[in-house]
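This follows on from our talk about sequence and fold. Please put the record directly below this note.
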Amino acid sequence: MPKSENPPRAPAARRRGDGAAPNPRVAVLAYEGLCAFEFSCAAEVFGLARPELRGEVSAREWYRFETCAAQRRPLRGQYGLKIQADAGLDRLVRAGTVIVPGWSGSDTPVPPAVIQALREAHARGARLLSICSGVFVLAATGLLDGRRATTHWRYVETLRERHPEIHIDANALYVDEGRLLTSAGSAAGLDLCLHLVRRDWGARIANHVARRLVIAPHREGGQAQYIERPVQRSERGALAPLLQRMRERLAEPLPIAELAREATMSERSFMRHFKRATGATPADWLIQARVERARELLETTAASIDRIAGDTGFGSAITMRHHFRRKLGVSPRDYRDRFARESAGG
């Protein structure tokens, strides 16, 4: 069947996700120490007029943006920024979408008035959205307990320690739990804001917004692809020299029996000590180490993917692609296209 020349109007596309057209008022929480980039993500997506959507979305239907704060005095943000909020928390409570654009610090207490306002807004049907460290504000309300959430990878362990009731997805760029939405750091806030536009208005309108921002409407993979090679703090003690040798011999098979002999342990004892030291089995540890080494070679050399697969112990490009996608959510080729340095020529 040919495509219709008159596609459905935007309001029909908007009735997705929660099952009804949302309250179009978007309130962004302003606070002392405001994170400027995260605030700008929300402002760019929800605060701009959209003349390019004329004929598809009326000005009355589009989002109505305002800033709300607990304090009515001017607030200081990052980089010398000063901001005077449009309104107090009473208007935040009546918004259809509330955005927390970061927070001044994971150790900064959340004022009780802010916690109460967010709970009231949610009880009235508002969607609560956090960007980066803003998840600590939503976590303080207790509304995330028993739900999935994410944050910038730098804050994952702190969030996990302080709020064990939350199911943290450390790899996700954003998590949509219906009326509770969280994103990873910085630009992942744009991903989440665009996702909400897509949920409200459909892909066509979201693509228009992305085009004006000059960004992709949707990014592949999770935030694991942006984390530099993590060093496990627990990798110390008697196994540390062996772990270093394993990193230097990734292209070799490295069977368990051989590793146990090098550690002068029985295989059973070696497996137990290895898991205690690294938090992973030898097989899982090797896969992660090989993926990290492959990332480095993809970024810094022009070597073929077949060559890198051999040099890192995967044996074949197919096997490397499988583990790369499982760990990072993208293919080796896409990863190279995104991160390879110009000097690599790849």
